[in-house]
């Protein structure tokens, strides 16, 4: 059952079962309104939105019998509600999601007692209980339905609610690098594109003493407008910066967070307050901040959410310890574990490709797929900032989270719906079906110094922030297996490395060879070299292409591997939004699809922890490879062991 | 390259081989053939290279054909149908014993002898000869695909000298765009091998003269002779009779290429076949369908059978419908005489489009050998439901004025009777009643004087069952299905329409293309279909030619419809010149819940 936090009177408490015979929530946005009227004898949902709805606009994830009535209202209200739609359920839906029109998506989910209302893509989401919860009709429009008179809440109430929501985003660790480079620019981009609610406040919180002005200056030096829309940029930036404030405080001081709370309240000005804390701080102070913020600076009447970034521990134990501590102060729903790779455009598109096209899903199994490769490479090293990295290494830094998450999305069964919980349920299943990684199936490497064209590139251990004798891998390749019916025996090869010859992230799916290939003779001795391959290039230069064999035009019968191609930059000239924009927006909207749930995290660690421990205990020495090279050759042998050839290192990649 | 694989009966090996080596390499053919001594014929039948490649593979990947066994088989290697016709024909002139037998008999005796090929274009003064055949022969010569020694003869009734023929040929020859060097020199050399012989089409005496001239040019070489019948169908038989009796090769093969029309219906076609078979046997007849020589039609089989990702989808389980679309953006333009007696269904559908359907829908053949492929094609054709009048829409273009220009109606053409009911447009829904395709509509559409010039195959897939993204697609799920488009002409391309997410913060879906645009990927000019087919005929590669039983099956599908159309004097729906064709085509498609892919908002 989903627990819904219903904050009232400045005190937080959780309702685990509905009391009273009517629970009524009004939820609204500046452009759409949705009212849920959940009565225990009969479920009715009132929805207000721009324009009328028809049945086609609405999708239910579960079969629920409902009727649909439309009533046009003309209002002298600035919110200009044009139509009202009522959904009446004759059975209590245990969960459902509703899409209103193609442009705005709302979802509505909850257990039989409780409801969560969320919206995606649209403006900020507000949520508040109405004072009158005794079910007595609130004056307003009423109409007949099934011969019974039904009541509709007073329309002006909605209007007043609409203006009152606000969201406050507090970036804890505002002076850090990530905050400056990613978070503030992403917030600005969201603001620029009108994705933020009408009223919002951005707070920076850190230990350094800064004034609001100084923070604004720091931010303004890193804000950039997206390439495709440059007009009004400086105006917009002005306006945005005016909503940015700074509060200096210790991370473990509840008193300082109380002060923050006061400042926040001041800015929120009595509106329905939703609060989002972005924890851009080292992991050892996560818990302190969460304690301080949740106890002293939670929203009195809206939601309070926390975004946490990796690392989520160093292994199973430390990760579950962290989770346990977070859960002392937060419930699962409030924790948004970010994995910014999941916010990448093509990772999002992966599910669309699979589930919205007929041509891929039949191929998506061990019957047709020979192996899957997940490849991440950077063309630079730690560059003097290896302190953090050395403590974690590439496996924890990239593989156990980013690559494994992509793998889970790639390999999961079809979820019941696109709802966050449905997708995460499937991901957990995949992760739990995976074989624990063994030392034999891993190759680790570390880059060494290299001189090329008179320029010398430093070794990893030349980095002053890295201990001289460090054995931390900067490169790793691993082969993983999913022991379920769909994927049994298919190697999933992962490769991640720093200081390689190029930068990129891609998913390569190599298909089996054609059984009984009529054109066998055209392919030379190794049929596997001429198989189809689907490549999803996540970055840079987003693209999808499918390698197919076709005939070289001409009188002879020569075959050639060519690409069926979709290059994003050609098809979509618009700049693709940064992963952080998407994730911040999702967190504001309560869309959890791209965030990692606790049990997912546990399952992910369970796969890697034994290996990581063994590497450290046995002090396994990484294979050295030159800076800027293609990585240690050991990766080839690992692939060869499972009869795989790395797709990115062949001639025609 | 190990060209010296010893025994290679000319056409008994599977036909897949690359033609890369070929005549083009001065090193390979004559010299090494001479060395290998046994098979001068090798030169004429480049097939050997086939076994060469398998031999270099160690022979393990491919089960190599046992040469001696193939030698025995080759003469009798025909389908059951062919076999029966042979028996029926009983005795045939010994001159016409199977090519393969010829090769076998003469091969060893002629060790060391060069072979030559003489190509006689019967009807040399005609349009097709000038525009297509001579240029294609020149292109083959230019690219080194013709044997070292060859002779080209023009044969027609007009009196002409060799020089006049050369003059005529030279005016239409053009070099392929990508290779312009030495063009003039090559053309000179080519023209030097072109000769003319004037004669009546039904005179054996004239063909005896031709034979003499041919012999003169062939010298003591093993002579192979190819006749291209670029003449009206009513004189096919006369010419075939004369050539076979008076001018066929004595020690090599003799082959005859015939172009459509192959009759007007099942009966006339069968009569023609019967007539041809009096003088020729099946493997001497090369019925050309130049659409089968198109690059992307050739590629269709490659796509299907050399990629894993397509074959699993190739059935009623995933494919909702298949559309084969042919359109021309011009009318008969004063040359409607021939067309009017045939109409678009006979001219385009019954042959070109139906052949493509057969290739598209056939089961996987045992090998790429011609007989295997043609066997599978016949099976598809014979599984097809006979076309009924309800499943056909016919149209005829009428005149149209646009931007001050008046485009004539079909009946405005002076060569067309004023009250002609001949369709210039037709759309039809066909069905293949076999396990793979039951219930899948194959829609064909062919028309003249339409708004575009195009030929393409569109495969529309079913919608995703239980689509998670349903709500992103609006009300009609079928409008957002995947579609594979193979554009045969112009601007060759293959693309697969997929649904993907529009980059950005929303979840909006979009149809985009996974694309392979030939012009972008392959800068080389794509050879003309006639080049490929002529070369195949010279090499005895029958894969792209139509066998008699295929032809019979094809006519069987269309003949009842054609008869009914004519008997009932069904009036075609008129459509303006340059339009998208009669709207009836939409209703026909709608009947089977199909939407024409080429007329949508996005192609």
TrEMBL record, chain A:
Keyword annotations from UniProtKB, A to Z: Carbohydrate metabolism, Glucose metabolism, NADP, Oxidoreductase
Cellular-component GO terms for this entry: chloroplast stroma
Class of enzymatic activity (EC top level): oxidoreductase
InterPro entries listed in its UniProt record: G6P_DH, G6P_DH_AS, G6P_DH_C, G6P_DH_NAD-bd, NAD(P)-bd_dom_sf
Residues covered by the Glucose-6-phosphate dehydrogenase NAD-binding domain: 171-349
GO molecular function, one term: glucose-6-phosphate dehydrogenase activity
Pathway: Carbohydrate degradation; pentose phosphate pathway; D-ribulose 5-phosphate from D-glucose 6-phosphate (oxidative stage): step 1/3
Glucose-6-phosphate dehydrogenase C-terminal domain span: 352-646
Coiled coil: none
GO BP annotation list: glucose metabolic process; pentose-phosphate shunt, oxidative branch
The UniProt record lists the keyword NADP: yes
Enzyme Commission number(s) of this protein: 1.1.1.49
Catalytic activity: D-glucose 6-phosphate + NADP(+) = 6-phospho-D-glucono-1,5-lactone + NADPH + H(+)
Pfam family, one: G6PD_C
Gene3D superfamilies in UniProt: Dihydrodipicolinate Reductase, domain 2, NAD(P)-binding Rossmann-like Domain
Known role: Catalyzes the rate-limiting step of the oxidative pentose-phosphate pathway, which represents a route for the dissimilation of carbohydrates besides glycolysis.
Similarity comment: Belongs to the glucose-6-phosphate dehydrogenase family.
HAMAP family in UniProt: G6PD
Name listed for the protein in its UniProt record: Glucose-6-phosphate 1-dehydrogenase
Organism annotation: Rhynchospora pubera
UniProtKB/TrEMBL annotation, chain B:
Superkingdom assignment: Eukaryota
An individual GO BP term: glucose metabolic process
Annotated spans, Disordered: 1-34, 55-92
Cellular component annotations (GO), alphabetically ordered: chloroplast stroma
Enzyme Commission number(s) from the entry: 1.1.1.49
Pathway membership, UniProt: Carbohydrate degradation; pentose phosphate pathway; D-ribulose 5-phosphate from D-glucose 6-phosphate (oxidative stage): step 1/3
Keywords, sorted A to Z: Carbohydrate metabolism, Glucose metabolism, NADP, Oxidoreductase
NCBIfam families: zwf
PANTHER family named among the record's database cross-references: GLUCOSE-6-PHOSPHATE 1-DEHYDROGENASE 2, CHLOROPLASTIC, GLUCOSE-6-PHOSPHATE 1-DEHYDROGENASE G6PD
Record-given protein name: Glucose-6-phosphate 1-dehydrogenase
Source organism per UniProt: Rhynchospora pubera
Source lineage: Eukaryota, Viridiplantae, Streptophyta, Embryophyta, Tracheophyta
């Amino acid at each position: 059952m989903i627990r819904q936090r219903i904050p009232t009177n400045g005190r937080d408490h959780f309702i685990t079962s509905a009391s009273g015979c009517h629970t009524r929530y009004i939820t609204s946005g500046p452009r759409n309104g949705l009212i849920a009227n959940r009565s225990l004898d009969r479920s009715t949902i009132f929805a207000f939105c721009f324009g009328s709805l028809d049945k086609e606009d609405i999708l239910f994830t579960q079969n629920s019998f409902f009727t649909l009535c439309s009533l046009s209202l003309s209002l002298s209200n600035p919110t200009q509600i044009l139509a009202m739609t009522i959904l009446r359920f004759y059975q209590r839906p245990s969960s459902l999601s509703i899409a209103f029109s193609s442009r705005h998506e709302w979802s509505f989910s909850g257990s039989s007692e409780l409801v969560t209302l969320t919206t995606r893509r649209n403006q900020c989401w507000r949520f508040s209980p109405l004072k009158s919860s005794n079910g007595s009709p609130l004056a307003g429009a009423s109409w007949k339905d099934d011969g019974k008179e039904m009541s509709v809440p007073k329309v002006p109430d909605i209007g007043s609610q609409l203006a009152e929501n606000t969201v406050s985003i507090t970036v804890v660790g505002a002076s850090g690098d990530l905050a400056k480079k990613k978070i503030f620019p992403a917030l600005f981009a969201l603001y620029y594109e009108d994705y933020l609610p009408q009223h919002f406040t951005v707070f920076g919180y850190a230990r350094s003493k800064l004034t609001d002005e100084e923070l604004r200056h720091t931010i303004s030096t890193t804000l950039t407008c997206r390439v495709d829309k440059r007009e009004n940029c400086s105006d917009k930036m002005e306006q945005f910066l005016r909503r940015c404030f700074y509060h200096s405080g210790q991370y473990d001081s509840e008193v300082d967070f109380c002060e923050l709370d006061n400042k926040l309240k001041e800015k929120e000005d009595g509106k329905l307050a939703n609060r989002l804390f972005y924890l851009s701080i080292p992991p050892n102070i996560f818990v302190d901040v969460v304690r301080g913020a949740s106890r002293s600076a939670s929203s009195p009447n809206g939601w309070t959410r926390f975004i946490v970034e990796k690392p989520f521990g160093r292994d199973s134990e430390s990760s579950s310890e962290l989770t346990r501590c977070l859960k002392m102060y937060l419930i699962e729903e409030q924790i948004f574990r970010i994995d910014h790779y999941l916010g990448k455009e093509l990772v999002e598109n992966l599910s669309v490709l699979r589930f919205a096209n007929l041509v891929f899903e039949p191929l998506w199994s061990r019957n047709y797929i020979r192996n899957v490769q997940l490849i991440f490479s950077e063309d630079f090293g730690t560059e003097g900032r290896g302190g953090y990295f050395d403590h974690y290494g590439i496996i924890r830094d990239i593989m156990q989270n980013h690559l494994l998450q992509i793998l889970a999305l790639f390999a999961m069964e079809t979820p019941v719906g696109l709802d966050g919980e449905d997708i995460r349920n499937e991901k957990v299943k995949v992760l739990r079906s995976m074989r624990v990684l063994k030392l034999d199936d891993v190759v680790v490497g570390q880059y060494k110094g290299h001189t090329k064209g008179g320029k010398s590139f430093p070794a990893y251990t030349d980095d002053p922030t890295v201990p001289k004798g460090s054995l931390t891998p900067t490169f790793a390749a691993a082969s993983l297996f999913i022991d379920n019916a769909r994927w049994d025996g298919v190697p999933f090869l992962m490769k991640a490395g720093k200081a390689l010859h190029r930068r990129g992230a891609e998913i390569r799916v190599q298909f089996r060879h054609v059984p009984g290939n009529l054109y066998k003779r055209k392919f030379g001795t190794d049929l596997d070299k001429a198989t189809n391959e689907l490549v999803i290039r996540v970055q840079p230069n987003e693209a999808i292409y499918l390698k197919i064999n076709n005939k070289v035009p001409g009188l002879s019968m020569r075959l050639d591997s060519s690409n069926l191609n979709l290059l994003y930059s050609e098809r979509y000239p618009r700049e693709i939004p940064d992963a952080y924009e998407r994730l911040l927006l999702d967190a504001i909207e309560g869309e959890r699809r791209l965030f990692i749930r606790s049990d997912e995290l546990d399952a992910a660690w369970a796969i890697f922890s034994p290996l990581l421990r063994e590497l450290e205990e046995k002090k396994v020495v990484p294979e050295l490879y030159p800076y800027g090279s293609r990585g240690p050759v050991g990766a080839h042998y690992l692939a060869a062991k499972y009869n795989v050839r790395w797709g990115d290192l062949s001639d025609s990649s | 390259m190990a060209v010296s694989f010893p025994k290679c009966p000319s056409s008994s090996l599977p036909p897949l081989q690359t033609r890369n080596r070929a005549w083009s390499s001065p090193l390979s053919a004559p010299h090494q053939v001479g060395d290998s001594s046994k098979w001068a014929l090798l030169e004429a039948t480049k097939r050997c290279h086939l076994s060469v490649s398998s031999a270099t593979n160690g022979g393990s990947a491919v089960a190599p054909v046992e040469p001696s066994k193939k030698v025995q088989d080759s003469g009798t290697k025909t389908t059951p149908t062919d076999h029966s016709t042979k028996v029926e024909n009983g005795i045939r002139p010994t001159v016409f014993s199977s090519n393969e037998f010829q090769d076998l008999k003469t091969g060893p005796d002629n060790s060391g002898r060069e072979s030559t090929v003489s190509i006689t274009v019967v009807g040399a003064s005609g349009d097709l000869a000038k525009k297509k055949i001579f240029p294609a022969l020149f292109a083959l010569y230019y690219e080194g695909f013709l044997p070292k020694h060859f002779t080209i003869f023009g044969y027609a009734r007009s009196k002409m000298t060799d020089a006049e023929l050369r003059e005529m040929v030279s005016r239409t020859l053009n070099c392929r765009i990508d290779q312009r060097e030495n063009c003039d020199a090559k053309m000179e050399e080519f023209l030097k091998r072109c000769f003319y012989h004037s004669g009546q089409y039904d005179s054996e005496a004239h063909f005896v003269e031709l034979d003499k001239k041919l012999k003169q040019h062939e010298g003591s070489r093993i002579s192979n002779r190819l006749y291209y019948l670029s003449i009206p169908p009513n004189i096919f038989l006369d010419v075939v009779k004369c050539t076979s009796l008076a001018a066929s090769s004595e020690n090599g093969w003799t082959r005859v290429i015939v172009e459509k029309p192959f009759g007007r219906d099942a009966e006339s076609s069968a009569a023609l076949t019967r007539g041809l078979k009096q003088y020729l046997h099946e493997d001497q007849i090369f019925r050309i369908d130049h659409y089968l020589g198109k690059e992307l039609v050739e590629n269709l089989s490659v796509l299907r059978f050399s990629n894993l990702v397509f074959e699993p989808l190739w059935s009623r389980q995933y494919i909702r419908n298949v559309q084969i679309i042919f359109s021309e953006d011009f009318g008969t333009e004063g040359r409607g005489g021939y067309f009017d007696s045939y109409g678009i269904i006979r001219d385009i559908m019954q042959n070109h489009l139906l052949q493509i359907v057969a290739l598209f829908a056939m089961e996987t053949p045992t090998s790429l050998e011609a007989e295997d492929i043609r066997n599978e094609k016949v099976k598809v054709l014979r599984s097809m439901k006979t076309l009924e009048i309800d499943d056909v829409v016919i149209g005829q273009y009428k005149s149209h004025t646009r931007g001050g220009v008046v485009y004539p109606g079909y009946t405005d053409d002076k060569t067309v009777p004023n009250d002609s009911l001949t369709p210039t447009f037709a759309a039809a829904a066909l069905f293949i009643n076999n396990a793979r395709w039951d219930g899948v509509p194959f829609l064909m559409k062919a028309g003249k004087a339409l708004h575009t010039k195009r030929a393409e195959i569109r495969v529309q897939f079913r919608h995703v069952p239980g689509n998670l993204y349903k709500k992103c697609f609006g009300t009609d799920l079928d409008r957002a299905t995947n579609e594979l488009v193979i554009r045969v002409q112009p601007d060759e391309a293959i693309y697969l329409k997929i649904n993907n997410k529009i980059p950005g913060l929303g979840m909006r879906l979009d149809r985009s293309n996974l694309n392979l645009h030939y012009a972008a990927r392959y800068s080389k000019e794509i050879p003309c279909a006639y080049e490929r087919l002529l070369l195949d005929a010279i090499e005895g590669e029958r894969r792209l030619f139509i066998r008699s039983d295929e032809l019979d099956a094809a006519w069987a599908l269309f003949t009842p419809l054609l008869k009914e159309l004519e008997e009932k004097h069904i009036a075609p729906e008129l459509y303006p010149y340059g339009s998208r064709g009669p709207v009836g085509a939409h209703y026909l498609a709608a009947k089977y819940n199909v939407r024409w892919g080429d007329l949508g908002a996005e192609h």
